[in-house]
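The records we work with from here on pair a chain with its fold. Taken together, the tokens spell out the fold as the letters spell out the chain. The record below shows the convention in full.
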Amino acid sequence: MRKSVITRRSALAGGASALFAPAVFAQEKFPSRTITVIVPFPAGGTTDLLARVFAQKLTEAFGHSVVVENAGGGGGSIGADKVAKAAPDGYTLLLHNVTFSTTTTSLQYTGRAKHSFEDFAPVSLAANVPLVVMSHPSVPAKDLKEFVSFAKETSTPLFYGTTGPGSVIHLAAEVLKRDAGIKMDHVPFRGAAPLVQELLSGRIHLGGDQLSTSLGHIRSGNLRGLATLSPTRTVPLPDLPTVREQGYPNMELFGWNGFFAPAKTPPAVIATIQAAMASAARDGDVKRRLAEVGAEVMGSTSEELATVLRNQVAVVRPLVEELKLVVQ
């Protein structure tokens, strides 16, 4: 990432230069006004919750308001595009999640992408929220292996729900269909809230999202967790087996959520935001609030987020092309 260079007109000299200097230094101070965090999903979901928790702590740290704006649609691409086109000054940030890798890759695959991964500067991982696959208790399956057996034996048409075309669970379910040899029809929803409601009603047979949106329902027995897509079992649900344990390693994905700025944002500004993020991640109240919804707070370096995204895209891109995963 290039370092920004502040230039001064050589013609300015003497008193004029001295008078102008305070204005230059004032412009360099960051932040000096409100910061907006774009969440590319409807309000009420996991990423929205994380954004509001961190926005509160960043407001306290900066002494200027950090506000959350929801810009849902297009599997997260509409909100992401707003940030990609924003001024690279640190005052417009994006909090995206694991779906970033699938949606953007899908749009690039179909030639409909308005932005690329290079249009963003990674700032920090906010939290890891495990991805879970779940069903209504009326479905005769206690785990993913039993669901596959049920799907092979039943004559009833099966439907799986996701938070939208191109979402990470859309990809995971299509991988499951391929690897297990089962049939299911996709029912996309505009966010996690309507997806969970349809699961609770029993009108769809399988669904998935970040754990935070369904943890309470799983614990109460209103929904049944079938598997976690995480590499390891989750602390909130230690008895929930991973997809790898159940024979479906190609579904495995790390459920990250991370902050991004527009590309070309000055490194010093990125460093300031990252430092505040890392401090917030160490805050006991933040840790407690995130743990309550099954999230593991992170607060990583910019380089660590870049590595996570780069590695995930390398896995996702071939799957998107093979399965022809399309954002509608």
